Amino acid sequence: MAFDAGELITFRCVSGRQSYGATVVPAPDGELSLQLSGSLSFEAGPGARLVLSSHDCSYYAEVLRREGQILTVKILWNERREYFRVDDFFPVAARRVQNAAVPLRSCIISGFIDGTNLEEPPDDSINPHLWTMLVNIQGLLTHVLDRMAVRDAGLSHAEDRQVNISASGIKFKTWEKMEERDLVELKFLLPTSPPVGVLLYGHVVRVTPTDEGDYETAVHFASVEENVREEIINYTLMRQRDMIRQDLRNRGNEDR
């Protein structure tokens, strides 16, 4: 780990997606102190778990103490963001691109909405039965709009696939045999809340036949826009947290 005094970094709580900025300040060996912005509203105290982002690495840390706007943390472990991989199962549409001269511009597929939380009425003046009706209408509207977004993005017929994904590439199975160095257009739907549709391009780097008669295909992403990369990174971190929680629950059940 190498953080320099004066270095600007970003961080967030492990359980959240909102990012904050801070400046590294001198600290004792084994610790890292962050000077928070004077206007920054950040409530986490000792024991909170954070994810720090610096260059191409993510660092997992625990808050030791807070003194005003100085947050002192202990680094637990780090993971190179480029090679941080998780397994999952979600819709992927892949097709070979014949014209290698097409612009290889990745993007977030628009149309997926993050509905406003209507679980509780804002005050007692709202009729609870009317509020329940509004909540149900919002849920139906969100479902319809998301399905329209999936259709418009060309993902309505995308096959759910077992995948292994990181910010640098994806591995999945397909019945179509591709060749190494093929240019591939990929569209997939990250199962976040709300879901995030992604369009990007990549080159096939490995094709392995399986016993089932299909092909395990590994693709290295090309020219990934920063906002797309961040969405994939946020998703992989979320997925890793879920896996850790599930593992802890399983261990707890085994100890009973």
Care to describe what's here?
By secondary structure, the chain is an alpha+beta fold. Helix content is 21%, strand content 40%. It folds into two domains: 8-80, Beta Barrel (Thrombin, subunit H); 86-111 and 153-248, Thrombin, subunit H (Beta Barrel), CATH 2.40.10. It has helices at residues 128-152, 226-255; strands at residues 8-13, 20-25, 32-36, 49-54, 57-67, 70-80, 86-96, 107-109, 159-165, 169-174, 183-190, 196-209, 215-222. The model is unreliable at 112-117 (pLDDT under 50).
Report the β-strand fraction as a percent range: 35-45%
From the alpha carbons, calculate the radius of gyration and give it in angstroms. 22 Å
Got a strand count?
13
What's the overall geometry?
globular
Ranges where pLDDT stays below 50 over 5 or more residues in a row are: 112-117
CATH level 4 superfamily of the largest domain = predicted glycosyltransferase like domains
- Using the coordinates above, name the CATH class of the largest domain: Mainly Beta
Largest sheet: 6 strands, antiparallel, barrel
Number of helices: 2
Q: Can you describe this structure in just a few lines?
A:
The protein has 256 residues and is an alpha+beta fold. It has helices spanning 128-152, 226-255; strands at residues 8-13, 20-25, 32-36, 49-54, 57-67, 70-80, 86-96, 107-109, 159-165, 169-174, 183-190, 196-209, 215-222.
Throw out a few tags for this protein.
13 strands, 256 residues, 6-stranded antiparallel beta barrel, Thrombin, subunit H, 2 domains, 21% helix, alpha+beta, globular
